[in-house]
Amino acid sequence: KAGVTQTPRYLIKTRGQQVTLSCSPISGHRSVSWYQQTPGQGLQFLFEYFSETQRNKGNFPGRFSGRQFSNSRSEMNVSTLELGDSALYLCASSFGLAGGRETQYFGPGTRLLVL
Amino acid sequence: SQKIEQNSEALNIQEGKTATLTCNYTNYSPAYLQWYRQDPGRGPVFLLLIRENEKEKRKERLKVTFDTTLKQSLFHITASQPADSATYLCAPRGTGANNLFFGTGTRLTVIP
Q1: How many Å apart are CA A79 and CA A87, to the nearest integer?
Q2: A23 backbone φψ class: left, alpha, beta (φ>0; ψ -120 to 50)
Q3: Residue A96 to residues A6, A34, A48, B28, B50, Cα–Cα distance (Å)
Q4: Does residue A17 contact residue A77 with C-beta atoms inside 8 Å?
Q5: Which among A45, A58, A100 has CB closest to B32?
Q6: From CA A30, how far away is CA A52, in angstroms rounded?
Q7: Residues of chain B contacting A32 with CB distance shorter than 8 Å
Q8: Residue A41 contacts by C-beta under 8 Å, 6 or more apart in sequence?
């Protein structure tokens, strides 16, 4: 079974631009969660989508948004990029039905550099 | 607010010794606790899950304990090997958004 895929793998943008990242979950998984990882802050939860609806949200500004399509693929958008948005963005998928018992499967991440 | 802390940012141990990593959480009552391993430049990979009514869980050279009174989990790697060098993340799992938070991570280096 194919794993979680993320595109693009690397991205360079300049301040003020916007960016869209894509995540394709494992087949059959309906939950997609997004995380930002930086050396200083660790793995920070952005939001979770389940069946095309945002189900949970972390503590990030409104510049960070996402959506999920009917095939469970998800996109994350960051508008008005800031230098501090440089990070590894990871998505994780799961069935989304069993709460804390469920394992999350992570993609390889998209490394975003903002200049 | 919820807080998940792992004992130290980095831990160096000699090959063959037992590595012990600590995860402490506050303002939270998770029903499960998961541990993940992350190698540089890659996404985390699930290792073990322990339930709140289980005191200990083992898988090969890995052992996890879960003390809901102390609000703490310990993660042990016995007979450690250089290949065990990675960052280890704990993830107390409850409900809602708390279900998806991770600890700060501990970077383990096993020295040959």
Answers
A1: 15
A2: beta
A3: 19, 14, 10, 21, 18
A4: no
A5: A100
A6: 8
A7: none
A8: none
Residue among A42, A99, A106 whose CB faces B43 most closely: A106
Q: What is the pLDDT of residues A1-28, one digit of tens each?
A: 689 999 999 999 999 999 999 999 999 9
DSSP letters for chain A: ----EEE-SEEEE-TT--EEEEEEPPTT--EEEEEEEETTTEEEEEEEEETTEEEEE-S--TTEEEEE-TTS-EEEEE-S--GGG-EEEEEEEE-SSSGGGPPPEE---EEEEE-
Asked whether B106 and B88 are in contact (CB, 8 A), the reply is yes
Write out pLDDT tens, residues B51-79.
999 989 999 999 999 999 999 999 999 99
Place of tokens 């391993």: B37
Query: Could you give the C-alpha distances from A112 to A24, A56, B8, in angstroms and in order?
Result: 18, 23, 27
Measure the CA–CA gap between A101 and A110, rounded to whole angstroms: 27
* B104 touches A at CB < 8 Å: yes
* A21-68 pLDDT, tens digit each: 999 999 999 999 999 999 878 899 999 999 999 998 999 999 999 999
Distance from the first to the final alpha carbon of chain A = 37
